[in-house]
User: Fold Alpha/beta fold hydrolase from Acetobacter conturbans.
Amino acid sequence: MLLHAIERGPDSPAATDLPPLVFLHGLFGRGRNFGFFQRRLSETRRTVAFDLRNHGDSPHGPMDYPTMAQDVLETLDHLKVSPAIVVGHSMGGKTGMMLALRHPEIVTKLLVADIAPGEGGFSQGHDLAARLAALPLPPHLTRADADALLSSVIREPDVRNLMLQNLDLGENPHWSIGIHEIAAAMPAIVGWPSISDGTHYDGPTLFVAGGRSDYIQPVNYPEMKRLFPNYRLTTIEGAGHWVHAEKPNEFFELLTQFIGSDQVA
Assistant:
C-alpha cells in the first residue's frame, strides 16, 4: 500500500546529501502533526511525513505492525527516500521499530518517542475506537457539537482535539479515518509481535520517554537491549505521552543532537 506523504526539502540541491528524515505518527494522528519539526529540518535535508494506513489521507485496510512497516517500505521505495533516519511516535514508533528490524539496511538511525517494543501503549482503553465508531453523527455537525459528542467517550480535551481532526463535519459528517479497521486492529496495535532470537537492529537508536508517561518501564529494558543493542534512553521531564507536542523545543533539541547537530542550520 502506498501511503499519503507530505514532502519538504531544501531549496539548495547541495543539502540533499544528508540522510532524509521520515516521520511516523501515533494512533489517531497524521503526518502533519510533525509539521513544526518538518518545517525546520527541511531547510537542510529532505523530509517526509507519512499518514499511516487508516489515518489521514492514506488508504484503509487491515493493520498490524508487519503490514504497516511494509507500507512504509513500499512508499519509501516509491519516493526513492532511503536509506533514511526514521522518527516514530507511539504506534508510529512501533512501526519504525518493525521496519528497522526487518529492513535494517534502509534505516540509518531510529528515534522512538514514548513507546517500547512490547505490549502496551494506549491508555484510553482498547475499545475506544469501537465506541467512537458506534457514535451517531447527526447531520450538520459543527465542531462545537462534535466536541460535546466526543466528550461522552473521551474526557481529555487534548485527546478530543486529536480525534476532531479525523472527522469531516458539515451536512453529512463522517469519520475520515478507517475507524472500523482501527477498532478491529486494536489488539495488534496495543500488542507487539514475537521477534525471533537473533533479529536485531544495530544502528543508533534513541528512545525518548515523557517524564509523566508510563509507556516505557524498566520491565521493557531487556527487550529494548535485545532488539536494539545500541539504544539510549532519555527522558523529557514534564512531558506526558505526546512528548513532541507537549515539549516541542526540548524534543527538537534532542532530535537535532541525535541526527547530527552539526548538519542542522
Q: What stands out?
A: Residues 5-120+193-263 form a domain with the Rossmann fold fold (CATH 3.40.50.1820). The chain has two domains: 5-120+193-263, 128-184.
